[in-house]
Amino acid sequence: MTRESEFKYKSVQDCQTILKYLAELGAGFSSGKIEFRNEDDEISLHPKGILNVEIKASNKDGKGKITLKMTWKEKNLKYLDQAPLIIETKE
Q1: Of 12, 16, 71, 86, whose CB count within 10 A is highest?
Q2: E strand or H helix that includes residue 45
C-alpha cells in the first residue's frame, strides 16, 4: 500500500535562490530522485519515464506569476506527440 504524503513550503526569496532551487530540481529529474526538507517536514520523490507537464504564466495588475506542475505515475504514461513548448529569455 502506498503511503500518502505532502510537502508544502512558502517563502519570499531572491532570484538567485530561485535559480538554485531550479538547478536542484533539474539535477533531481536527471538523477531520478528529488528530496524536499524543512524544519518540520520532508518528502522524497522519484520521477521517471514520461511526465505530464503543465505551465501557467500570467501578468495581472503588475503581479507576475509562473506555476509549474509535473506529475507522473509508477507506470509509464503514453507519450503524446504535441507541439513543443518555447521558453525565451531574451529581452
Answers
A1: 71
A2: strand 42-45
